[in-house]
Amino acid sequence: MFAVKSLTLAHLTISATPLETIDAACFAGFGRVGIRICGRRPGDPYPTPVIGQPTMIQTLRHRAAQDGVAISNISAYQFYPDVDWEQLAPAIETGHELGASIMVVNGFDPDWQRFGDRLARYTEAAAAANMRVALEFLPYSAVRNLAQALEIINGCGAPAGLLLDALHLARSGGVPADLQTLRPEQVVFAQLCDASATPAQSSDEALMHEARTARLPAGTGQLPLDAFLDALPLGVEIEYEVARADLAQATPHEKALAASEDAQRFMSAYAERKRARAEQGAAHA
């Protein structure tokens, strides 16, 4: 049986406070957790701010240690044209104080030169704090696909890497074979979920809505998840990110337990299919 302890629980799966997300991850047996520490933009309402709140930072770090859950990645402000360095820098400090290893970046600045400069500075500051930056391409953002993400990373000259999301890869027109040319060090971590083969609507608003509120449990949709996992570097961190519309009113613990059961079911079946493919290949060799 697959051990869910090896997976990370995404904050979007729970859509709760950081403290509730950590507790839910522990309750459901996940070994790591991703948390959001502020709104997506400065000024956005956020029920429990973490940046600049030393008591909250200490509480979260203590609770994670007490629960035996590692804080893997931090989502903070997304990179919009009007978000400046003075707003971005404290997120790095907070991530370091929380003991996280990854800072997630989403690019909504159409000026790639400006975004690349800020990404480089952010990446260098994160590296100084013993963290990596993972750039996630979103088909409804300014960095819409894998090729654009690689172009920005290569152009900024900083050691940022990629966050590969199965849904965003598919919705941006990508396929798992596109990942096979990546070097292992270019992939920071990956996110697993399922969805229909094609979206009901393809507008930016519809794709954003699907990503944030209507993902499907792995193995219940039509995404080529076996091929996606096969194409990832060996041992890469996998985060389970499934914001289910049918569980919108469930408690954080209920959402986390459903995610744990879904992930364990799919990953166990995937491991068996992979073993069977290997045996078949050996028999034909």
UniProtKB/TrEMBL annotation:
Record key words, sorted:
Isomerase
Q: Which residues form a coiled coil?
A: none
Report the residue ranges that make up the Xylose isomerase-like TIM barrel domain in this protein. 55-232
Give one GO molecular function term. Answer: isomerase activity
Pfam families referenced in this protein's UniProt entry, alphabetically:
AP_endonuc_2
Q: Which domain of life is it from?
A: Bacteria
The question of whether Isomerase is a record keyword is answered with yes
Name assigned to this protein: Sugar phosphate isomerase/epimerase
| Phylogenetic placement of the source organism | Bacteria, Pseudomonadati, Pseudomonadota, Betaproteobacteria, Burkholderiales
